[in-house]
Amino acid sequence: MEGWQRAFVLHSRPWSETSLLLDLFSEESGRVRVLAKGARSRRSNLKGTLQPFTPLLVRWGGRGDVKTLRSAEAVSLALPLSGITLYSGLYVNELVSRVLEDETRFSELFFDYLHCIQALAGTNGSPEPALRRFELALLGHLGYGVDFLHCAGSGEEVSDTMTYRYREEKGFIASLVVDNRTFTGHELKALANREFPDVVSLRAAKRFTRMALKPYLGGKPLKSRELFRQFVPKKPPLKSPQDLQ
Known about the structure:
Number of helices: 7
Function: Involved in DNA repair and RecF pathway recombination.
Distance between the termini: 71 Å
Radius of gyration: 21 Å
Family: Belongs to the RecO family.
Structural class: alpha+beta
Protein name: DNA repair protein RecO
Organism: Buttiauxella izardii
Helix content: 25-40%
Shape: elongated
CATH superfamily of the largest domain: Recombination protein O, C-terminal domain
GO cellular component, one term: bacterial nucleoid
CATH topology of the largest domain: de novo design (two linked rop proteins)
Number of domains: 2
CATH class of the largest domain: Mainly Alpha
Strand order of the largest sheet: 1-2-3-5-4
Largest sheet: 5 strands, mixed, barrel
């Protein structure tokens, strides 16, 4: 099996009448762009294989920015994502595509990605906990170190009922100011443990990861978020008592 790697397709698009241009996330080489020649032709044995969320074994060659796919085999059927979990998976794929440098090894993150997709496929509830855990894992692998358990000002352990304001490159400092950058000690402990026992801690995790990921994403909006907004119907406005009569 020399030269083979475990990988997932993050994104694909047509390239010529018969080929596909793929962004892969591989175990050993990280994010790689490859050209799958003939993959769209009727006779291709790859037709239907090179899809997002399908565990693959792949080989490629070449020295340029775009490699040439040599072989690909599906390890199993695609992980079953649909509805809100499908859009969540697309968000994870876009996050990896936007944030990771080309051909940089992120073997541990590869398995964090796999566990996230498996969690999304197996969930009967909200996808939010799986997404927050992956975002925190991604930040950790990018070298974004932050101490959730100690006040950056005093060094003391955070207290559940105290409030702490987040300051970039410093951490969380005890503060009486309450705004979007303020978190309770209870919420910070949930972030440290990557466990979110209640709605409050889950919302706090989303606030933090959005702030922390923003410098990596720049000003360009995520397409998957826009798709998600279109998928989730807007709540109708509250009716007045007169309308209910």
